[in-house]
Write a structure and sequence with these properties.
This protein is an alpha/beta fold. Helix 6 packs parallel to helix 8 and helix 9 packs parallel to helix 10. It is elongated and about 70 Å long.
């Protein structure tokens, strides 16, 4: 059951217990403690070594078996000889913005994906004071140069959804990431910045490359690893979807102790405009999406986020703001709106909204009693802002 071979590096690797030996290699990262225990039992070791391995690779963030000093030296040497590896994704390139944002190319198998570190967040999901779910759960990261941070994580290489304003769409879908590759992005960035879990205020947003709900099992597998093995709270995680209704329906069934917060990329005031921008709207209309969202049982004080990309002249008019206010109110959901001024990308023919249009839009929504936040563009100079991720090395 644990012997399935991987024939090509770009092939979809199943998660957790089914994580295969790669040729003669045995990769550990991506397996949970129970699966690691099973591997240990197979080589005649006590099952509690599984817990030790999980502690070493997810909490101590050790990337080499030789350095796992909780294992006897002879065992470490034997495992290495037999082709065992931690197999964690690694950062292969770093782009640094003038605003402190960092964009990473993270090697996952034969591909690279993109992950973004935003010290002090972007006023979207992190630290905007709107979450009311224990933002005091950590103290300032003293001496680290940041008080809180947000990490934007990718779920797929490319994306199949084809939103007309998004650079990632230009790649098409190349492949799904495994659970280990999704969680691994977080662990390598934690390692780089010396993040202390349980102490530092770090939020995760699954808003990088890809549509998480079209890679549902691996996405939730990653959440499980991050919660159960790394020790993070799902209330510090937000997953964004373009509106994949079956995915939202499954998400609604997840237990509260594993379920991240939900953000919906609304991006338009009505179906006519939305289906021009997001072809997926022909499959699942705004109303179908809202029906699915209403199935999610929100925690006390939790709110659903509606993301709204402001495209100059296309979605940023005063009448659009009034329509969005009506639409959001009609859902009856505890909700907030995150406005995102469109970030430009090569080959995309939209224009950025005027500052007055953005401010007018925000004012209209707020005037209608809707909690509205303006997301700060972070790292535009290194192509790290929303919708700009495209495995670009020519930033
Ligand atoms: N696929 C998921 C998550 C990744 S996209 C989704 O679409 O929700 C994360 C957010 O970036 C989405 O809200 C999307 O609408 C927004 N976005 C995409 N391209 C953008 C761009 N060029 N400028 C600003 N925001 C963009
Ligand atoms: Fe995919 Fe999200 Fe970009 Fe749409 S906005 S193409 S769903 S990554």
């Amino acid at each position: 059951m644990l012997t399935q071979a991987v024939t090509g590096e770009s092939q979809l690797v199943p998660l957790d217990a089914k994580r295969p030996a790669c040729g003669s290699r045995t990769l550990l990262f991506g397996l949970n403690a129970a699966a690691l225990a099973a591997r240990m039992a197979e080589v005649g070791e006590p099952v509690w070594r599984g817990k030790q391995l999980a502690e070493a690779i997810y909490r101590q963030r050790i990337a080499e078996i030789n350095e796992i000093t909780t294992l006897p030296k002879a065992l470490r040497e034997r495992l290495v000889t037999e082709g065992w590896e931690v197999g964690r994704p690694g950062i292969v390139q770093v782009f640094q913005s003038v605003d402190g944002t960092e964009r990473y190319l993270v090697k996952a198998g034969a591909e690279t994906v993109e992950t973004v570190w935003m010290p002090e967040g972007d006023d979207g999901e992190a630290g905007d004071g709107s979450d009311g779910d224990g933002d005091n759960a950590g103290v300032a990261a003293e001496g680290k140069g940041w008080n809180r941070a947000t990490i934007c994580v990718s779920s797929q290489v490319g994306c199949a959804v084809n939103c007309q304003f998004c650079l990632t769409a230009k790649l098409g879908l190349q492949r799904n990431l495994t659970a280990g590759e999704i969680a691994g992005q977080v662990v390598v960035v934690f390692e780089r910045h010396g993040v202390e879990v349980g102490r530092d205020r770090v939020n995760l947003v699954f808003m990088g490359m890809g549509e998480p709900f079209l890679n549902y099992d691996n996405f939730m597998g990653a959440v499980r690893l991050l919660v159960e093995e790394v020790g993070l709270s799902p209330q510090r995680m937000t997953v964004s979807t373009s509106g994949i209704v079956p995915g939202i329906e499954r998400f609604a069934l997840e237990p509260a102790e594993l379920r991240p917060k939900l953000a919906i990329s609304l991006n338009a005031p009505n179906d006519v405009i939305r289906q021009e921008l997001m072809p997926i709207n022909r499959k699942w209309s705004i109303e179908a999406v809202m029906d699915a969202v209403r199935l999610v049982k929100l925690r006390p004080r939790e709110r659903v986020t509606f993301e709204y990309v402001l495209l100059g002249g296309v979605t940023d008019r005063p009448e659009h703001a009034a329509e969005v206010a009506r639409l959001v109110r009609r859902t009856g959901l505890a909700a907030k709106v995150n406005l995102i001024a469109w970030n430009p990308g090569p080959g995309i023919e939209y224009t950025m909204p005027q500052a007055e249009a953005v401010e007018g839009f925000r004012r209209t929504l707020a005037g209608e009693g809707i909690s509205t936040y303006l997301r700060r563009p972070r790292g535009r100079d290194i192509f790290a802002a929303c919708g700009q991720l495209k495995r670009t090395i020519e930033a």
